[in-house]
Amino acid sequence: MAASPISSKLAKLKIEAFSDKAMTSAISGGTFTALVNPDTVKETIAVCYNNQNAWRNNGTGRVFNHFKPQEFELNFFLDGTGALGIDTLAADYVWNQVQLFRFVTTTRKDAASPPPYLKVSWGALFIHCQLERASVNYTVFDTDGTPLRANITAAMKTFADETLKKANDPDGTKAIAAAAGSSLAKLAAAAYGSAGYAAALAKVNGLTSSRSVTSDKTLSAPPATALKANSS
User: What spans are recorded as compositionally biased (Polar residues) (predicted)?
Assistant: First the structure.
């Protein structure tokens, strides 16, 4: 979250949508500006550790693996009751703003495209992210059922490649990027020169199988002297 200069102007929460991760292709009509800024912003930072670490400190403590993408949860509301002193809003303002928010955060070019890449900015808050989940709670209605107020809770998750990844440790431990389905035997052979280290590599990283990796993850590969190769 990058800091921004203090300004005397009232900054509004803005969400801008892009079709590419580099954020060079803005989506037409893909900008949402909140009428009322968030009343709360929750930031969650999660750390992943290896489940097995007997090769270091005799199994005590935990071995750092990587940081998960940060998550930000924003809570704000839309109001068309006139309570804010704005009497120029259309009768269906709240409904239209909810649809705009949905368009900006979820529209895709086609069925194969991911959800939009978002630039969220407000004061010191400036993140590149994608929508993780959102809920809309309509709380006030007109006599004909038209919603006049809605509370929105939106959880945004930063890009995985923007999070801090584990670098090589001073003791010789290396970080190995492994895609889902990768053979542990091949990973072990590349790291240690022998596929016989596959079972030990799986144990160090808390994997239930020594055959393959079931999901994308970063594995820890300690020095060969800390592992025992399976000669069978």
Answer: 209-218
